[in-house]
Amino acid sequence: MLGAVETRSVSPVFVGRAGELTALTEALSRGGAGEPQALLVGGEAGVGKTRLVEEFTELARTQGAVVAVGGCVEIGADGLPFAPFSTALRALHRRLPAELAAAADGQEGELARLLPEFGDVGSHDPAAEDGTARLFELTVRLLERLAADRTVVLVLEDLHWADASTRHLLAYLFRTLHRGRIVVVATYRSDDIHRRHPLRPLLAELDRLRSVRRIELARFTRAEVHRQLTGILAAEPDPTLLAEVFERSDGNAFFVEELVASHECGRGTAALSESLRDLLLVRVETLPEDAQRVVRTVAEGGSTVEFDLLAAVARLSEDDLIEALRAAVGANILIAAPDGDGYRFRHSLVREAVSDDLLPGERSRLNRRYAEALEQDPGLVRADERANRLAAYWYHSRDAARALPAVLRASVETRKRYAYAEQLRLLERALELWDEVPDEVRGALRPMDYAEAYPPCGCDPETTPLRYLDLLAEAAVAARLSGERERALKIGKTALRLLDTEEEHDPLRAAWFWTERARLQSNLARGDGWAEIARAQELVRGLPPSAVHALVLAVAAGWGMLRNPGPDTLADAERAVEYARLVKAEAIELTARGTLGCIMLAAGDTERGLAELHEVRERTMALGQFHEAARTHVNLSSCLEGLGRSHESVEVATTGIDMARSHGLVDSAGWIRANLAESLLALGEWDRGQEEAEVLLRTAAAGTKPGGTALMMLGLLAVRRGEPALAATRLAEAAARYGTRDPIPQYTLPMAHVETLVAAAEGRLADVRAALAAAGEAGFPPGTHRYAWPLVLAAVTAEADARGLPAAADGRPAALDLIRRCARNLATPAPVWQAHSLHVSAELARAEGRDSAARWAEVVAAFAPLDRPYELARSRHRLADALLAEGGRREEAAALLREAHDTAVRLGAHPLREDIELLAARARLTPLTADRAAPGEPDADHDASDASDAFKLTPREQDVLRLVAEGRTNRQIAEELFISPKTASVHVSNILAKLGVAGRGEAAALAHRLRLLDAPV
User: Fold this and answer.
1) Are the C-beta atoms of 279 and 245 separated by less than 8 Å?
2) Which residues neighbour 65 within 8 Å (Cβ) at sequence distance 6 or greater?
3) Which end of the chain is more exposed for a tag (fewer CB within 10 A), N or C?
4) DSSP three-state, residue 742
5) Apex CA 182: angle with CA 179 and CA 184, to 5°?
6) Taking the alpha carbons of 644, 645, 647, 651 in that order, is the dihedral positive or negative?
7) Which pTM was predicted?
8) CA 28, CA 155: separation in Å to the nearest integer?
9) What is the edge-to-edge ordering of all strands in the sheet holding 334-336?
10) Rg (CA), the chain
11) pLDDT at 1006 over 80
């Protein structure tokens, strides 16, 4: 509105940046075609990032794109949570109100945390740890819906000022935005990103994403500075001026403008101070006194200052204020804010220079004026910014008594927006101010009681003052929820140290802090957390029922459920439910009931356990406690799979994923998806199970334990499909996710299972035995049979396959004895585990030379009705082998092999398919399929006197392989066959290549397993 009087220091000609602008326009084209684009534009302050983005957004508008720009806001040294997203969404709301409302339909309460225009903020669940993730997921879905049928360009400026919540949301957006016609451009100052700058880790993380492109702006060349000067002066610049400006500016576009402005003000470039700050202040110092005063006031008000707020603080008449603003805008120092409601500096470098030039007393006085004006008229700023800005103004005014209440109010508002990192910063500021505040002010403060089950003061909250410990509890939870677990641990340690003193002795509060510490110890892989839980139990023992007592019991029961779900754990869960009901803490009650249901199932009380879980699921959904509802979906789907009811598990998991995603519960969706992948693999839907595991690895849950489970499932799939090396890699990646300090059977036993399969595939029988021995020594707690049976089966199958190998003889009796002891101790509460028990018994008989068709017929009959196609195919193969060995039932054996072969082909289970085809070749059965011959595979029509023909082994190589299988060295082979050791070595190398194995042990195991050295059946 004051643009007509601006002096000309900006070139009307866009200079240079052709390559960068081309990159942005290409991204716009790809984004418009439905391929979301993410770009980071970096460069030093003043290099021209804003001008480049302005040119790009203008171009985008001409092509019909909807452009929304948001900038990170700085108030003093503080950023407002989610400021750039809120500003951009507000712009979209103005431009597309109906479309944005439709995209947000049903989730307005949650999204109002970012954009108050959506209405009232939804209820805040303090126990919902993934509230932030839910908000992030809903924001991404909102943008995807809005960009479904139009191109949206989202520009987020000045990331170097971004608060932690904004950085986290941006990272989530860049990782998970996969649909829609959308282009996201974020800018930052590269020269501000020092080694400890909080943006630096985010940039490193985004650099690893192939979907993110980084553009770095270099300074102008001399020729580009010449073009810039020509545009500013509207004439050819004097060569001397060009030389001096280029030398002094070093090609920085903004410095070029300031040098020209200084020259136009009558201060030649030669007279300029070498100080950068002095250069930036040149134009300010030429303004009238009132204009300088207004500029100084705006500099301390934040990135943008509303006109009415500025008027209240500047204390000038309206006419004088407008004249002062006209002068500042005319000098190109201030500009009108994009929404026309206030003013900001044209370049933040000038604002920083002006702010740095303020005297300490002047700065605190201006902040006090801002705070007083805002308290007198709260409507001077937007409601969603009011609490944070007032807290910042009072804090920087150095008035601790006024700052502490304002900071605490802001922390509550920030928590409601799930901006936990900013809440933590505010609470730490409150802790810093605490001792500076007079007792009467502290005595008037009241507890916030947001720290989950943290005990209220114990009396009337209307009359009981806030305590320092209450602040520590709030800060500890905020630190945990924001991912600052180390900081949470330190805060909790401080609190526990205080609670050890006589003045602060409080068993309930101490128990709460020990429970928090237990959770953090586990999350940080510092231990299993049991010592901390035990300490908390000691503290509450004998005390009247309370929410903290119920919480301690519920946490203890949850710990035991995962590690040792015995009678003590059952008792803890039952008492947690009882205590929670007594104190009417329904959220804790439902958590404890969910745990109780799982423990009942582990103890064999199937129907009551399932009924409990179903009731908890229905109640949590009815109450809108979606976090606990998602946890119940996790546990229910897992328990159903443990009962062999995989179809029901898939149904529950699918519903749970939809529910979790609709409420933005990303981590919970990851846990449920891991269970879904497990059930799909069990049902023989291997491709779909692999797809679900890979989807999980592309989500935010990839780095957590669900990501470890997904990797383990992929490892299991790899080894079953004949890729043991890939399986080993997946296994190592899964182990990194799980950690080593808190071994939980539901992770360690499946890991041992895959490890055993890999070792068996590579002929490492000693490692197979070691894996089972380690698992057996750790024990199989109640309810872990579902993980233990596959492990024991893998171990006994390896022993049976190695029967007759000289290398396997040593230690074999002890290994078989261990397998028997493990099997005896494992429960069989469902038909699927009864079938596994029969399978283990049949493999034990095969390992001891007592194989019989009758045993295998029993195994086949047990698996046939269970929807376990892989296990059924394996048992059919073994039954066919036994029938052929006993003789006389070739047609029945052929039919079994055909059925097993069809399954192996469909699943892509190459080792099983190979076993079946070679058995058919040895038995000279009819072809298993109409067209089965392939390079390197046996053909049943081949007149095979030996199955070794399938691998095209020469008679000499067969002799060598037989000796390798007996454990002979190259020298011993040479002596036996009257050849040189070198020739023996060549034969061994050729055999390994033909068999496709990596070592002699694996070759021996494969030869024995496939009976390559046996006579035809």
Assistant:
1) no
2) 28, 32, 150, 151, 152, 153, 183
3) N
4) coil
5) 120
6) negative
7) 0.73
8) 12
9) 305-306, 342-345, 334-336
10) 36
11) no
